[in-house]
Amino acid sequence: MPLNIPDKLPAIEFLQKENIFIMDESRAVHQDIRPLKIAVLNLMPVKITTEIDLIRILSNSPLQVELDLIKLSTHVSKNTPKEHMQAFYKDFSLILNHKYDGLIITGAPVEQMPFEEVVYWKELTEIFDWARTNVTSSMFICWGAQAALHHYYGIPKYPLEKKMFGVFPHTKNDPNHPIFRGFDDLFYVPHSRHTEIRRKDIVKVPQLKVLSESKISGVNIVAAINGREFFLTGHAEYSPDTLDKEYKRDVSKNLPIEMPVNYYLDNNPENPPLVQWRSHANLLFVNWLNYFVYQQTPYNIETIG
Fold first, then answer.
1. Cβ–Cβ < 8 Å for 219, 189
2. What is the mean pLDDT of the segment spanning 80-107?
């Protein structure tokens, strides 16, 4: 089924070239279907790229999804045109009294700062609290996951000696969990971060469970036991060339950066990336939408609580 997104969003033209079925609002209103309402709080600096990544992966579900892009009122994006933000994003204050079947909160390039020093921390924590009574299931990605775990459960983050950068193998701790339906025993996930959360802190919280991890990159997926919160330390949604762009950007700026691990064909940055995570990324988001959003959310969205 298609993803229903705002008319004229740049992602439409880009993804239609990949034969991804996108339905804009004008066409969707003629279908007598109760779509899943998903809100995305996009904290990444280059927002259009993140929109494309998430829309690409959410469109693989057989469920019809209606997407709302949300922005903070306490932070103005410097890397995305103002006209784009005004046309396609809603301030959180405008959806405060709305209910959503699902919520995705992305990472942000502020992970080396203490949480409380992030300029929009207060508003973000208000969104975290709002989600618990207005959203059926929430997914938090990378720094968004660290921030939510800190706010909800007091989980700290720790600086890494060097950036966790590359594509790493992971194993499932609970193979029968619905989020892993269709997964192989070993699956790969891209990571790009300077900080980490640690298993020793998570296992102290009875409401949390470490679902998957890596011997190299550590904890990967953490879930609240009621299925209403999923915390992802990696970037399963990344496009094939995202790590390549990050690496070459930092090299051009003479920043300390190592080549992404297990990423380029023959470990040669002159070669294209070897994509090893796409199928499991698709399964991850489809399983979340099916088992923890669609099958748990009420038909009358106003009864979410």
1. no
2. 93
Quick check: is 167 in a domain? no
Cα angle value 121/69/219 (rounded, 5°): 55
Q: What is the pLDDT of residues 227-275, one digit of tens each?
A: 999 999 999 999 999 999 999 999 999 988 999 999 999 999 999 999 9
Provide the token pair at 257.
């950066």
Catalytic member of 150, 177, 191, 235: 235
264 beta partners: 273
pLDDT in tens, 38-48: 999 999 988 99
Tokens of 134: 């207005």
CA distance 239 to 53: 6
Judge whether 285 lies within some domain. Answer: yes
Cα dihedral sign, 64-141-123-197: positive
- Number of structural domains (the chain) is 1
Question: Does residue 84 belong to any structural domain of this protein?
Answer: yes
- Give yes or no: 194 in active site: no
The dihedral region occupied by 254, where left means phi > 0, alpha psi between -120 and 50, and beta the remainder, is left
Q: Is 237 a catalytic residue?
A: yes
Of 233, 225, 199, 5, nearest to 106 by C-alpha is 233
- The residues, any chain, with a CB within 8 Å of residue 255's CB and separated by 6 or more, are none
Options 51, 177, 237, 280, the catalytic residue: 237
Largest CA distance in the chain: 55
Please tell me the pTM assigned to this model: 0.90
Instruction: Catalytic residue, from 66, 142, 170, 196: name it.
Output: 142
In this structure, is residue 187 part of a structural domain? no
Q: Is the dihedral of CA 105, 109, 115, 117 positive or negative?
A: negative
User: Would you tell me how many other CB atoms lie within 10 Å of the CB of residue 235?
Assistant: 24
Asked if the model's pLDDT at residue 5 lies above 90, the reply is: no
Q: Tell me the CATH number at 226.
A: 3.40.50.880
Structural domain harbouring 50: 3-159+196-240+281-303
213 counts as catalytic? no
What's the rounded Cα separation, in Å, for the pair 245 and 109? Answer: 15
